[in-house]
Structures are given as C-alpha cells and as structure tokens.
Amino acid sequence: GGYRDIINLMSSMERLAMDANALSGTLPPEIGNLLNLRYLSLPENEFTGRIPGNFGNLNKLRHLILRGNHLDGSIPESITLKENLPMLEQLDLSRQRDITGSMSATHEGIDGGLGGLLPSFSTMDNLVQLDLRYNKLQGPIPADFLQAVDSLIFEYAFLNANELTGTVTMDAIGDLPVDSVFLEDNKITDLEEDLCFEHRGGVVQAYGCSGILCPPGKYGPTIGRQESESSPCEECSSAQYWGTTSCFGGNGPEGIATPTKAPTL
C-alpha cells in the first residue's frame, strides 16, 4: 500500500528521489518496472533487506543512490553488468553500516551492511563514481576491477571501511587515476610493488606506497595514507594492515578517526 501503489502508476517517470523520508521496510521491487528511470535516489532512509535484482531492468538508469540505509545481502550481479545498466554513471551503495555507531541501526539492533565478494564491475564503461564504503564486502579486489572505465573522466572508487583482504595488484587498480581509489580500513596485507613506482605520478611519485596506504606498523589519522608533508604516516605498533586510520594501544592516540568524506554530489 501507500507509496508502493503510487509507484505502479508512474511508468513514465524518469526521476525518482525520496531522500531522507524515514521510509522503512524492504526496497519496493515495483521500482524495477519503471523502465524510463534515469535517476533513482533513496538515501538516508530506513530500508532493510536486499537490493531487488530487478533493479537491473532499469536500462536507462544513470544514477543509483541508496546510501545510508540498512541494506544487507550481496550486491546483485544484475546491477554490476553493462548489458543491464549500460548508461550507469553513479552507483552509491555506501554506509549500510557505520563503524562510528551513529546510525539508528546501532540502537535498533539492525545489522546492516552489504556483504559477499566485491564485484568487479568490469564491463561498466560509463561508470564515473562508485561508492561502496562502510559495508562488509570481502575478498581481494578483482584483477579486472573497473577495467572498462575511462580513466580520463573517472572520479572515484570508495572501498574503504569494508573487509577486503589480500594483496592489491597493479591489474586491479593500476589503470585508475592514482588519487581516485580509497582503500583505508580494510584488511589488506600487501601492495604490489609496481603500484608504488613514481612514474604513476601524484602522491605515489611523492610518497611511494604510503601515498596509497600507510604500511603495517604505521597509521594515517583520518585517511590511512600520506597526502602531504604535513600528514605523514605515523608509528603504530597495533596497525596490522595497510591503510589503518586509528591507533589503539600503540604509539598513537586512541580513538576512531573521522572517515574521509566523498565529494558533495
């Protein structure tokens, strides 16, 4: 009932935005029938459950924004393929969980967070903005991750504050702009040496691997890497992984750092 019934009457709609409306329950699968949608924005609500697989039917969609709900389950393959969403430019599924404990889910006992393996999005050639931070995505970054995007216009991939593991390879992110991939606060155990060569330019030219992520034994307050001479990676004996942003019981101050913010969209 309610807004779900209204959705069924709006088949010609091109833009659907219901930001911060305290909407709850599961995401309406009826949205997957709105085949003219170009912009779908439902952030900062109280939606729970899984992302409907039929959102992959929205083949005119350019922007899909579900940030700041309490969604769980894996990311449907249907929304990661060019054959389904050939025009998609922005995908924001971030902040389904919040390690700062500030979201209402913490108080209501809702355990949100998209999980499963990180998809590769390998065919999504129009994607410019990808935000998956503050979830529970696992596994290594796929070797063909974002391999079809145009590196000249690609803006960012926020993967920080997940549960990604293993070695970050040149194949995975080497073709993306140096300053466009954010990986802090995962469980990354190594960076492939080629990622740190100064010919890649930017912060890597200036600071080597530390320009990507601070190494184990060090941490980068707030950002997990070195971006300037005034923000070096600092000693922290409790930092097990690359890209730690806070130091507990080690050489640095205790406390959870404020997460890096995405550009305002």
How are the strands ordered across the major sheet? 1-3-5-7-8-10-12
Mean pLDDT: 90
| Fraction of residues in H or I helices | under 10%
Spans of 5+ residues with little confidence (pLDDT < 50)? 101-107, 252-265
Largest sheet: 7 strands, parallel
Which class best fits the helix and strand makeup? mainly beta
Please compute the radius of gyration using only Cα atoms: 19 Å
Report, as a whole number of angstroms, the end-to-end distance: 31 Å
Characterise the protein shown here.
With 265 residues, this protein is mainly β. 8% of the residues lie in helices and 17% in strands. The protein has four helices and 15 strands. Strands 1-3-5-7-8-10-12 form a seven-stranded parallel sheet, with no helix packed on it. Helix 2 links the parallel strand 7 and strand 8. It is globular. The two termini are 31 Å apart. The C terminus is likely disordered.
Task: Summarize the entry for a quick read.
The protein has 265 residues and is mainly beta. The protein is 8% helix and 17% strand. The chain has helices at residues 3-7, 104-108, 170-173, 202-207, and strands at 15-17, 24-26, 39-41, 46-49, 63-65, 70-71, 90-92, 129-131, 138-139, 156-158, 163-168, 181-182, 187-191, 218-219, 234-235.
